[in-house]
Every structure is written in structure tokens, then in C-alpha cells.
Design a protein that fits this description.
The protein contains 11 helices and no strands. The protein is mainly alpha-helical.
Length: about 300
Amino acid sequence: MQGVLGKFWETIGTKLGERWLAVALPALLFWALGAAAYVHAHGTAGLADRAKSLRTQPLVLQVLALVAGLLVIAVSAQLVDWISQPVLRGLQGYWWPSLRLVRRYLTDRQTRRLQPLQDRFDALAPLVANGTADADQDGEYQRLDLELRRCPPRAALHMPTRLGMYLRAAESEARDKYGLDAVKCWPHLWALLPEQSRTDLQAAHAALHRSVTYVIWTALALVWAWWVPWLPPIALVLVWLLHRFSLLANAAAYGDLFRATVDLHRRALYTALCWPLPATPAAERTAGEELTEYLWRGGDRADVTFHT
């Protein structure tokens, strides 16, 4: 029994350590950068004097100082973790009403960005269909097809940022294809998902969440510009790189997996609710709209018969 309990607590400790390290490592790097910026501006003498003074203090005070440092790291890491979700929504383009003019301008800009992509895709489609496209044209066609699929098909659904476009497209596709409102139906569908599908989605969302926290920490590094004036250009470049190659990539991967989950498991909603399964793809959109309305508001429709 002691061996089993020992292994149990060892496993728990390992998982907690991994979780703490994943959350606290960016905070640790942030404060280490701050210390380096201070040393850059003031030299090592002041820091060395403080370290020497601390070593002369009683052991209890040294331990308390270490605990205080760890608390600063942990609390700052938790604060950034808490604000990451509102920051993610802000990066998507869900801003305050006072910024609606900026939002409208950037949304129109995204719409204009897609138009030449759509025109080029339409021009390449016949060549690919009849087999006359060369390798470069076929590769360009595939890239355009993927980018257009990751963006909402209608201008009314467009968002001010590419990140917002990717995530909005993943949310809205179920309505366009199946009549299901993914946002309204998601809690019900989540309860029916197999464990592996849940794990994969949670991992994809965690990767997206980490990308947001990395962007936040890199942007916060601008505060050390008080001591290192040349730091802002480097921090801004890193923010752009993280946004372009980490945040957008993880958003696209999460959106693709979200779509696949709805595609594969949507019919479980009908079965679990004893709702009549649509017989054809043409009938599914109407059935999905009716099922969404029933889940969202209920109803007493007499023309629907539950299937047991």
C-alpha cells in the first residue's frame, strides 16, 4: 500500500510540477529579463550588495525572501493566465463599442484581403479540375483553398483580424453546413464526445492559450524599456513573430480540429435527444436549425416525433 501511495503522490507531484513550470516559466523569464535590464542600466554593484546583505541575514529571512520571490513569479503568472482569455477575444476583434469605427475599417480590410484570393482561386479552379494546372499552380490552388476555408465565406461574418477570422469560421461552419449553431449546441455536444476527442481538443486549446500568454509576456517586456531603450523594437518584432507563427498557427489547428469534431459527432446530438435524424444532406440544414432552436429555447412542436 505504501508503494502505491508513494507512486500516486509522485505522479501528482510530477503533474503539478509540469503545470507550474508551464505557467511560471514565462514569468520567470520576464523577471529575469527585468533583472538583466536593471543590471544593464545600473551595473552589478547594487545587485551584488543586496545579495551579500541577504546572505548575512538569518536563515529564516533568507527562506522568506526566496518564498517572496517565488510568490511574485507565481502571482504574476496567474494574473497573466487569467487575462489571457479576454486578451484572446480582444485579438479576435471583440472590442468595446467606442472602437466600432476602427473595427469596421479593419473588418472591411479583411474582406478586401480575401477578394483577390477568391478571384485567383476561381481562376485556378478550372485548370485544376481539368488537369492542366502545373505543379506551381496546383500548390497555389491548395494554399488558397485552405486559407479561404479558414475564413468565413460571407462578409457579414468577417472579423477585424485574421485570428478572429480563423476562429469565427470554425464556429460558423456548422451552421452553414448542418444548420447547427455550434456555440449554442457545444455544451451538449461536448458532453457526448469520446474521451480521446476531448483530450485532443483540450490539447489544441491549451496550445492556443499558451500562444496568447507568450504574446502577453513579450508585450509586457516593454516595461523594461525604462532601463533598456533599445528593447522595444526587439519586443515588438518578437510579438509579431509569435502572433504570426505561433498564435495564428495554433488558432488554425484548433479551428480545423473543432470542425472535424462537429463533422464526426454531430449526429450523436440527434441520437442522444431522440430527435429524428435527417435522411439527406439537403434536409440536414433544416433539421439542424430546428434542433438548435429546441436546445436553446425548448418548444412544444407537435410535428416532431421522438425516436427511441
